[in-house]
Write a sequence for this structure.
């Protein structure tokens, strides 16, 4: 009898402990899909299965719609606008693009023209408007010079309600540096409007979160701009980790994402409107801001501004949390970013920079 | 207690210890690979069974290799080959995509370390 008891109780003990291994009921719904020309992952916490699936597919549909509507060269509302901008005279703009153009104008002014969405022709000249096949060598210098001399600015476009006219025939809109931010922002707005309080929308490494991931905040890693490593060693390719708070967007611009190589020189997609060439003083910029579109445009503008000029542009654009990695590998941080971010490598040289 | 009883207790305690160890691994490797073609699930495959799979896409076949609990794009018909250069992945939540070919793969099961990677 005694023996049986011992046997029985040890097995019960083992059984109870092994129950620790059981996965809890999924409170997380996570779905990844290819939309908006990138991989979008939507994570929802504490949402019923049916509602989660419906919400995820609604966001996916919206994102496909926005991608088509805002694509500069496809036959959608923005493509049509770009055609009409090339002709003299007034026309009626599509209301699915006008608010975004107005937002872009404000951000372009705040960035002192470093975020310049009127340089669609320059992006096209370099071939970065395509999803995969970029150019294989830089465009001729005289074409770059000609375009920069024409000085296309978004302020050349005059908007009177829905009537639009354009003073500068060189203007073509490419909202690539803000569209993803606006799309993430609208996706989060939609999720909130249907009563979802805890969610994260991650569009190709740029994201916005609301609420929390259960009893903890949303954890994210920030990719190291120079470490080449494989997915299996994910932690080693990170430069920093960060907890994202409610209603915060985190956007990163890096020179390692879209590029081509010619004669061992890398040409990436973040073009400096002052030179017409890829900005070459920075390797990555990460910003946190409540508005996705602002965060998106700011990440680009600060990347172009570089290690000297960024604090002033950040102040103009109202960005408090900035991490800029310069080409020597130094991390420039605003004091508020330094409080939030946990660098993964103790050897990294950090420069704390107050905003002016 | 006889020797057999002691052996049973010993094995039970060892098993308990091991179950603790496995249950509290901080970031469990994933167990299942999902392969998507144009955002539609094309195939689910255990990461424990080695395999080489041809997945047709818009441009041609992407070749997915599964080996030792890991998965990768062995080859893909796209120009940039970002998916192939991404190498092996094995953590739950990891995703690799060949956007031009419309094929992406994702690891499920277990808990990833991060909710997202910013880049």
């Amino acid at each position: 009898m005694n023996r049986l008891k011992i046997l029985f109780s040890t097995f019960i003990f083992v059984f109870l402990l092994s129950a620790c291994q059981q996965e809890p009921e999924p409170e997380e719904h996570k779905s990844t899909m290819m939309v908006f020309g990138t991989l979008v992952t939507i994570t929802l916490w504490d949402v019923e299965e049916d509602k989660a699936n419906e919400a995820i597919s609604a966001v996916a549909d919206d994102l496909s719609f926005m991608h088509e509507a805002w694509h500069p060269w496809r036959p959608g509302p923005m493509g049509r606008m770009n055609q009409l901008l090339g002709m003299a005279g007034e026309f009626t703009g599509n209301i699915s693009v006008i608010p975004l153009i107005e937002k872009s104008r404000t951000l372009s002014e705040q960035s002192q023209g470093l975020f310049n969405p009127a340089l669609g022709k320059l992006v096209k000249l370099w071939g970065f408007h395509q999803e995969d096949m970029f150019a294989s060598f830089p465009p001729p210098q005289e074409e770059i010079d000609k375009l920069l001399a024409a000085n296309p600015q978004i302020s050349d476009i005059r908007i009177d309600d829905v009537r639009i006219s354009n003073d500068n025939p060189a203007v073509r809109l490419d909202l690539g540096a803000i569209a993803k931010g606006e799309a993430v922002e609208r996706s989060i707005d939609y999720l909130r409007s249907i009563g979802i309080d805890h969610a994260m929308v991650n569009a190709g490494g740029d994201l916005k979160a609301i609420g929390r991931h259960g009893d903890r905040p949303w954890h994210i890693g920030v990719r190291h701009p120079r470490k080449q490593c494989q997915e299996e060693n994910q932690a080693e390719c990170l430069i920093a980790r960060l907890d994202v708070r409610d209603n915060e967007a985190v956007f990163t611009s890096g020179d390692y994402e879209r590029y081509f190589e010619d004669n061992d020189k890398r040409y990436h997609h973040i073009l400096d409107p002052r030179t017409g060439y890829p900005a070459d003083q920075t390797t990555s910029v990460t910003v946190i801001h409540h508005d996705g579109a602002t965060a998106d445009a700011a990440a680009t503008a600060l990347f172009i501004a570089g290690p000297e000029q960024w604090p002033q542009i950040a102040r103009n654009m109202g960005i408090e949390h900035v991490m800029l990695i310069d080409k020597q590998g130094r991390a420039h941080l605003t004091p508020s970013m330094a409080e939030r971010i946990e660098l993964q490598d103790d050897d990294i040289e950090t420069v704390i920079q107050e905003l002016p | 207690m006889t020797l057999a009883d002691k052996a049973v207790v010993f094995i039970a305690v060892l098993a308990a210890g091991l179950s603790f160890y496995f249950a509290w691994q901080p970031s469990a490797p994933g167990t299942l690979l999902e392969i998507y073609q144009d955002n539609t699930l094309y195939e689910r495959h255990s990461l424990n069974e080695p395999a080489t799979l041809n997945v047709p896409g818009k441009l041609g076949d992407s070749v997915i290799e599964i080996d030792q609990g890991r998965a990768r794009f062995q080859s893909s018909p796209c120009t940039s080959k970002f998916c192939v250069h991404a190498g092996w992945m094995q953590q739950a939540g990891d995703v690799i995509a060949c956007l031009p070919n419309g094929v992406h793969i994702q690891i499920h099961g277990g808990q990833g370390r991060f909710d997202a990677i910013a880049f």
Remarks:
- Residues 292-317 of chain A form the longest helix (26 residues).
- DSSP finds nine helices and 17 strands in chain A.
- The domain at 217-352 of chain A is CATH 3.10.520.10 (T-fold).
